[in-house]
Amino acid sequence: MAQNMYDNEAFFKEYIQLPRQVKGLDGTPEWPDLQSMFPRRLEGKNVADLGCGFGWVSRYCIEQGAAKVLAVDISGKMLSKARTFPSNGITYVQGDLESFNLDFDAYDFIFSSLTLHYISNLARLLSEIKFALKPGGSFVFSIEHPIFSAPRNAKFIKDSEGHSVWPLDGYFDEGKRTTNWLAEGVVKEHHTVSSWITKLLSARFTLWQIKEWCPSEQQVKENPMWADEQQRPSFLLIRVVKDVPTLEQF
Amino acid sequence: MAQNMYDNEAFFKEYIQLPRQVKGLDGTPEWPDLQSMFPRRLEGKNVADLGCGFGWVSRYCIEQGAAKVLAVDISGKMLSKARTFPSNGITYVQGDLESFNLDFDAYDFIFSSLTLHYISNLARLLSEIKFALKPGGSFVFSIEHPIFSAPRNAKFIKDSEGHSVWPLDGYFDEGKRTTNWLAEGVVKEHHTVSSWITKLLSARFTLWQIKEWCPSEQQVKENPMWADEQQRPSFLLIRVVKDVPTLEQF
Asked: pLDDT tens digits, residue range A115-163?
C-alpha cells in the first residue's frame, strides 16, 4: 500500500496552506503548461483524475464540459475537503493507486498531478491506465523532475564564484528518496527521465508532448525567491496517447 | 556553415589520441548501448552515417551485411584517415550537415554519433533525415547529455560534506556553449532534454527508445577516474522511427 501522509494531521495542516491548495489552479505555477497539454475539447468526455486532492482539476474538466469525472485519492481528508465544493458530475472515490482498478476502454482523458512519483509499482499503474483509455485517448501527468528528486542534498549551493548551482548526484540511483517536506519521512520514488519514458513506451503508449517546467520570468518577478528555480527543472510534464488521436480527440 | 575544428592541426593531433579514435568501438564506452538500439538486421540495408569521423560505425554496418553506407563528415582530415581502412560499400563524402541534402526515401537506417550537438539548424537536419528515411526506417543518434552541456562550469565540485556533485545551472538557457575541449573555442549547442524530444516529435518522428548513459560498474573498475561520471548522465542516446517499423525492420 502507498504511503498516505495526507491523513497525517501535521502534514495536512501544513499542506492545506500551500498556495496551490488555497488558491487552486491560480496558485499552481505549472498549471498553464499542464493545461496546454490537455485534449483541446473536453465536452462530453469521460475523465479520470488520479490523485485528485481537493479536486481542482476535476472541477475544471466539468467546467469545460466533461460528461463525468472519476476523482480518486488515497486521502480521506483530501476527499472530505473536495466534497465541500459543488461537484456535479464528479464521483469521488478513496483508493490506493498501487492497486486501484479502472474500467476497460472507459476514459477519453486521464490526468494525474504530482502523484506518480509516490507509486512503487509504476508498471502496473501505467498498464491499468492504458487498459482504461479509449483508443486515441490521452494520459497527461506531472511529476517532480528527476533532476529535482535525484540529489542526496536537494538544496541549491554556492559554487566558488558565489553562483547558485544545483548539486546533482545520484541521478542513476533509482528508488526511494525520503524527504522531510512538510512532515518527516515523506517517501518518493526517483527514476531517471529515460526510465520514465521507457516505462511509458513499454506500456505501448506513444509519446505526444513533453515539457520540463521552471518558473517564467513573470513568475519570478512576482515571486523573487524563485529566481534559483530557473537554473534547473522542477517538474516534468508528459502527454502520452493510446494509439493515435483522431482530429476530434486532439 | 558549421564549425570544423577537426581540421584544426592542434585539435586533430589531440583528437586522434582519444581511446575512441585509437581503439575504435572497443574504446567507445557507450557503444554497447548504442549498438543495442540499432535495427536488429542490417543485411542488405542502406545506411547513412552522419558525422562519420574515422568511419568505425560505417565499417561495422558493412561487417553486419549492410549493402552500402553513405558516410558524411565535415572534416577532410577525418575522411582521409577513414579512407586508409578497407571500405568496400562505403562512400565517403565531405559535407556540412547544416546544409547537406540526402536522397528521398533512400535509407533504412541513419546514424549519428556525438555530432548533432554541433548543429545550429537542427529542425532542417531532422526534417532532411525524416525525408531520407524509408517508412519504418530508424534514426539512432547520441549527443552530449543536456545535463552535461548546461553548466557554466562543467566540472564536478565538492559539497560541504566533501561529496562530488555536478554543479547544474543554466539548464533552460538554450544555445551556444563555448568549451576548451582539446582546443580553444569549441562551440556546442545546448538544448534541454524536452527540447530535443520536442524537435523530434515536431519532425513527426515516433520516439522508440531513449537511454541516458553513464559508465557501468565494470567500466569504472577498469577506469577508476570515471567514478564521478556515475553521478549524472554524460550522453543521451535516442532511437526514433519514421512510421512504425515492420517486424523485419525491427
From this structure: 999 999 999 999 999 999 999 999 999 999 999 999 999 999 999 999 9
- CA dist A8 and A4 (Å) reads 8
Q: Cβ(A226)–Cβ(A219) under 8 Å?
A: yes
Contact A161 B168 (CB under 8 A): no
Neighbours of B160 (CB within 10 A): 8
Given CB atoms, is A217 within the 8 Å cutoff of chain B?
A: no
Q: Are B215 and B223 in contact (CB under 8 A)?
A: yes
The model's pLDDT over B129-174, given as tens digits with 9 standing for 90+, comes to 999 999 999 999 999 999 999 999 999 999 999 999 999 999 999 9
Residue with cell string 502520452: A240
Interface test with B, best of A143, A148, A194, A204 (most B CBs within 10 A): A194
pLDDT in tens, B36-54: 999 999 999 999 999 999 9
Residue type, B159: D
Amino acid A212 reads E
Q: Check if the beta carbon of residue A143 is closer than 8 Å to that of residue A236.
A: yes
Model ipTM?
Answer: 0.94
